[in-house]
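Q&A log
Question type: sequence-to-structure
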Amino acid sequence: MTARKLISFDWALKKLLRSKANYEVLEGFLSELLKDDIEILEILESESNREQA
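Response status: OK
Response body:
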């Protein structure tokens, strides 16, 4: 039996969003996924992220 390598969606997004330069990549991904033009206006930080910043 072969093991499959899986990456959870939330982990991938967190990793991608560490750099604000990647917001355009996320916009493109969501636009294709949802078949609608998506524009990220603001990313809200969770309380745990604010404490680390």
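Response note: Helices lie at 9-16, 23-34, 47-52.
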